Amino acid sequence: MRIKVINPNTTRSMTEKIGEAARRAASPGVEILAVSPRMGPVSIEGSYDEAFAAVGVIDEVLRGEAEGCDGYVIACFGDPGLAAAREVARGPVVGIAEAAMHAASLIGTGFSIVSMLERSRMTMEHLVHAYGMERRCRSIRMTDIPVLDLEIEGSDAQARIIAECRCAISEDHADCVLLGCGGMSDLMARVSAEIGAPAIDGVSAGVRLVEALAGLGLGTSKRQGYAAPLAKAYEGEFGRFALR
Amino acid sequence: MRIKVINPNTTRSMTEKIGEAARRAASPGVEILAVSPRMGPVSIEGSYDEAFAAVGVIDEVLRGEAEGCDGYVIACFGDPGLAAAREVARGPVVGIAEAAMHAASLIGTGFSIVSMLERSRMTMEHLVHAYGMERRCRSIRMTDIPVLDLEIEGSDAQARIIAECRCAISEDHADCVLLGCGGMSDLMARVSAEIGAPAIDGVSAGVRLVEALAGLGLGTSKRQGYAAPLAKAYEGEFGRFALR
Amino acid sequence: MRIKVINPNTTRSMTEKIGEAARRAASPGVEILAVSPRMGPVSIEGSYDEAFAAVGVIDEVLRGEAEGCDGYVIACFGDPGLAAAREVARGPVVGIAEAAMHAASLIGTGFSIVSMLERSRMTMEHLVHAYGMERRCRSIRMTDIPVLDLEIEGSDAQARIIAECRCAISEDHADCVLLGCGGMSDLMARVSAEIGAPAIDGVSAGVRLVEALAGLGLGTSKRQGYAAPLAKAYEGEFGRFALR
Amino acid sequence: MRIKVINPNTTRSMTEKIGEAARRAASPGVEILAVSPRMGPVSIEGSYDEAFAAVGVIDEVLRGEAEGCDGYVIACFGDPGLAAAREVARGPVVGIAEAAMHAASLIGTGFSIVSMLERSRMTMEHLVHAYGMERRCRSIRMTDIPVLDLEIEGSDAQARIIAECRCAISEDHADCVLLGCGGMSDLMARVSAEIGAPAIDGVSAGVRLVEALAGLGLGTSKRQGYAAPLAKAYEGEFGRFALR
Amino acid sequence: MRIKVINPNTTRSMTEKIGEAARRAASPGVEILAVSPRMGPVSIEGSYDEAFAAVGVIDEVLRGEAEGCDGYVIACFGDPGLAAAREVARGPVVGIAEAAMHAASLIGTGFSIVSMLERSRMTMEHLVHAYGMERRCRSIRMTDIPVLDLEIEGSDAQARIIAECRCAISEDHADCVLLGCGGMSDLMARVSAEIGAPAIDGVSAGVRLVEALAGLGLGTSKRQGYAAPLAKAYEGEFGRFALR
Amino acid sequence: MRIKVINPNTTRSMTEKIGEAARRAASPGVEILAVSPRMGPVSIEGSYDEAFAAVGVIDEVLRGEAEGCDGYVIACFGDPGLAAAREVARGPVVGIAEAAMHAASLIGTGFSIVSMLERSRMTMEHLVHAYGMERRCRSIRMTDIPVLDLEIEGSDAQARIIAECRCAISEDHADCVLLGCGGMSDLMARVSAEIGAPAIDGVSAGVRLVEALAGLGLGTSKRQGYAAPLAKAYEGEFGRFALR
């Protein structure tokens, strides 16, 4: 089985970290392709960044279909481009926010999300709602750490994230914590150990969920909203995205 | 006051029709710029098309800020790129699905949406929910007419749409009908007359809502999720979208 | 266009203040009639007051229909008599709570309401829910200031309201604030400036929304729940309200 | 124990019928006062009628407090004036829609409401939601029979109502039926027998719920939204409703 | 009328206390049978305990049907076995959480639950939701007192519970408090007096609601999900529970 | 990895069928223990049956912990005993209704459940809601086939189920179908092929989800509502279930 894990931003060090987490999580015999798009923002911190990242994700899924990928993980906690990716893919596609929330809802009574900039709260709330998790989500705690600080060795980002996770457990009645950024995917074991409760990395969870679905022969249903995109003309610089 | 009405697809005949509806709706002294993006799909029928259209919308809003636009209407009933556009714009931005639903909720007890392809039902449902309109929406009726059929003279598209609107009133307890596509913006008066109940074109409603907000001095709030995009590098062909 | 702005209580100084706000907000050529009912409470602080105010509102809308009014604004943040007024009116009717919430949902990601007595919290919650705004409302902050204190020159009411608005922005993740009483309609510009985020006065928003709807030719739909009241006998002192 | 059952319209024959149902339902030793207001509409078919009926209800509750009533039932299926009545009453107040829905939710998995004019659907939906019964309500079936037809001997109103109740059970997965009008309060036993499932008359249920609450020493809580109305001036013909 | 009040745990002192509360609440002429199951946990503090308690409850309802009981109260605030008991019983069955929430929603605008161990929060939240009370429930406050501490004379359990009830009123905008454990059923009058707002014991409320329903001739509807259990074989030690 | 799949009823032929489906779904190296409880009903068709089945499930999970099981699947579409099983288990536990719904929500826009007796509709609705799937569930279609008919060779049960699945796709806008009974676990491939859309067997999905969670090192969180049962006395025939 070949799973493509797409880091929707273009920061290679984060793509590598994500790829490592994905490989650690994958079952024996599962091949992980960890990529970033060829174009787009170096980090995703708002809806503007996300709109461009979505196109990058689509581009990688189109390429993945040609490469024979069996499924996809979108490794940004805003799940950019998820619905469009599902239209393109035959196999399953999961976003890491989606994967983490589904996993949490199977092992606990309520989760908290710990993430980066306050300005992304709206996106998280939106996803919690879109996935039907509003009665499971105990809190969303933003640390106000810029995404790329996670890539800076020696920054206090990890310590601050762990502190916030601890509060989620002790103050918000959460019994597990979601690591709310692809760039935190190396922290699952460490945070879990520190807080004495499950910490869930969506990249790891996403890989395993895609394995599970593809292993059952379940691809994306093409009967309604995720049917393949219709053939039509695309103008200007997006001309190459026209499908036939 | 200068309002930019963005038809997110690249079909010029539809942009013209939308521009006419916008001008008909606008107050005296309001200037309407009706545009389509320079790149993207000729029609929007699914999430794939929508992802590219969103970039086209953003491009036009960026340009509009330089042109001194006071507000924006996104003239596709999926409201593509709305959150990103709000990050970029100082003034208000409304989508036509959003505008039509808000207007309907102020003049009736329940509305139906009449729109095009069945595959877009998911998007409509999602918007109904995102806008808090789930207790107002009586039904979503898809005619399964391709969007561009609206541009073909002599097609039976209008007749089929009107028939569906009639059913919404008589069978679904709706008391007004939303025209669920930018390409229907010339039908507001005719449908209203035929069904004996308000039919709402989102383009017209959108122009008037933007006028109302801008006239009150209300622009998009920059304090939380719609704060201006952060300065950062963008790679590859999207390099020109990097903001400073 | 002639819009009647009804202050549902009988305090004339508040009616004047509301009329001024309405005129400030109105487009050129729009005539504002600012009135209070001939009977009813001097302020509305609970459901008892509201029930009487509703009759006063209806009385003014009946009169307004005879006066050729094109639309109505109900200028109390509990929107008393709204559904009944819609049955009577041909044109659009909006309440100021409704108007403020709709406006806020178009320019921000979440609002807080700042209002008067704690006992009215229930009413505000009810309206938030009735209008589908439960996912937009960040908080309801009651200052416990009696409504008529807003009419006392030199009171600290304004200062306390502004302090509460500040907290809504800084503590509740709100990005705009709704002024939760008709008597605050003179504060929109001042509060906005002080808190650095949009403050919305429902009177101003209501006038503009009625203009927008009436300008589009949209009156209240008469096909379902807002159909004209049925002709029937009314007994006793309400005999004059019987319609034929 | 003395319970006042208020028929909010002024049709005496209906008040008598309601009084009989209330007496049939009441426990031994409970005194029923069945009254109509001195002023207001002869039937309640819309929000306009309801606004005036609410004042009539309040008037009767004010009088009831002086008469030593221990609780109140508001015998119209729109529960007009309920919140205001609670502000005035020391004892419990229940509406018949509320009573019927609560009773149904304790004995079945889902109910249907069978009621009169289509135009009142909006009000029923609103109450279903306000009382948290949206997951219990299987359907609302309006017969489009005018309320006062229930008072005409020899009309086919009863037959049509029973037919609709039967459909609710056989087509909508309901396991009990709510009689959606005070004027149906004589039908509980007959409908039950005909459909082979519980039919609930809100007047009967309301009397028993008030007995239950008052018997436990539970009156309306005065700590928040149902606190006694504040003393204040009332102008014009409502002057006599000013409380001190 | 004969009502069986089932304390689902096997602690006799608690059963006696519950029986006393039930008898205090019951109308003249109503016979109360207060029992505990013959098997099961001495207290119910989690879903494991609850699963066994449910079987004990069913056992007592089966026996009650033979004994001619007219209705049942399940006297644990998790309402264990409620749906199954309804399948078995001809008359009405109410749980004390359900009874308390319904009573509270008829006399106030919002309630708080004050209960025992933090680990039971999930169960309470689940019931609040199942009963449609999510917009009425202001807070759930767990004292972290083990259930059986309520049976220890001289413990500080009562004092701590009262303190928490006070906070519910003063901090959470609640206007009544639900006593969230069958073992608190002796505290209704005392807590009410101390906090100056209604405190509701579900045992008392449950008895009165069963009286009300049974008095109206309303038993559990057998038309859908509460139809009598089907005749079938039961294996092993549960063989005696097979119905014919 | 060792996964115990518990058929909560005692019909061995169904347990075997479930075991086969589980083994077909399991990854290489995963050991499946397929069992039924030693006591309880031969089929689960209502809440009464479910209450006893829950004890049977718990008994098997207790035994499974001693046997070194890494996770559990509860193979009845009502997910009986799920919360209690989670308290007992260190590893993950999933119900087949839960598993099927989560899988469906990752590959489609809306699912329908096709299941057995009408009387179980209430349970399905309850689970749909408990799992946050109310916006994903297009319909619940009950075939009114008794569960054990699935074990009768030559019955028309399969044909009727497939017919219903087809309707779910063609009439309800569903894009995948959930097989709503453990006894349908042999039908996944056949139904999928016949309807041209994914059909999901919860047993298969459950095994893969448990594998995914356990493979990530995620067991049931013990920090809140799923903490291990407390040590306490159990009386009577349940004495052996007391934990220390």
Task: Summarize the topology.
The structure is a homohexamer of 244-residue chains.
Chain A: E1 2-6, H1 12-25, E2 31-35, E3 40-41, H2 47-66, E4 71-74, H3 82-88, E5 93-95, H4 96-107, E6 111-115, H5 121-130, E7 137-142, H6 157-171, E8 176-179, H7 188-195, E9 199-201, H8 202-215, E10 234-235
Parallel strand pairs in A: 1-2, 1-4, 4-5, 6-7, 6-8, 8-9
Helix pairs in contact in A: 1-8, 2-3, 4-8
Detailed description of the structure:
The structure is a homohexamer of 244-residue chains. With 244 residues, the first copy, chain A, is of the alpha/beta class. Chain A folds into two domains: 2-95 and 204-241, 3-Layer(aba) Sandwich (Rossmann fold), CATH 3.40.50.12500; 97-202, 3-Layer(aba) Sandwich (Rossmann fold), CATH 3.40.50.12500. In chain A, 41% of the residues lie in helices and 16% in strands. Chain A contains eight helices and ten strands. In chain A, the strands form two sheets. Chain A has a four-stranded parallel β-sheet, sandwiched between helices. In chain A, strands 7-6-8-9 form a four-stranded parallel β-sheet, with helices on both faces. In chain A, helix 1 (12-25) crosses helix 8, helix 2 (47-66) packs parallel to helix 3 and helix 4 (96-107) packs across helix 8 (202-215). Chain A is globular and about 55 Å long. The interface between A and E is small, with 4 and 5 residues. Chains A, B, C, D, E, F: It catalyses: a D-5-monosubstituted hydantoin = a L-5-monosubstituted hydantoin; D-5-isobutylhydantoin = L-5-isobutylhydantoin; D-5-benzylhydantoin = L-5-benzylhydantoin. Chains A, B, C, D, E, F: Its EC number is 5.1.99.5. Chains A, B, C, D, E, F: Belongs to the HyuE racemase family. Chains A, B, C, D, E, F: This is Hydantoin racemase. Chains A, B, C, D, E, F: One of its GO terms (molecular function) is hydantoin racemase activity.
